[in-house]
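User: Hey, quick favor. My workstation is busy. Could you predict this chain's structure for me?
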Amino acid sequence: MMSLFNTYFEEIITTVVLILSLLLLRLGSTKLVKKYATRSEILEHRINLVIKYISIFLSILFFISLFIIWGVQTKDLFMTVSSVLTVIGVALFAQWSILSNITSGLIL
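Assistant: No problem, here it is.
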């Protein structure tokens, strides 16, 4: 166990620093957006949308950085993403087909 920790020590430390950076960036960006919004009198709904979009953007950057740190091969990553999207697409098509059939039956 200790040799495994020593082998990946640099990656573990970098990941911890990355997680702390993500948390600080999210907290800081949220405070900045809310501060700007109160000065500009922007609607609460728009503030929440901007915070959500910034959070999604930071999460995507976090995962990309994490993949780079741990040395994930891009071909493996693309294969995983394409497989997940294929399963989601098939599930959504099946759901749409079932709803379509139910709606058709009710209309008839």
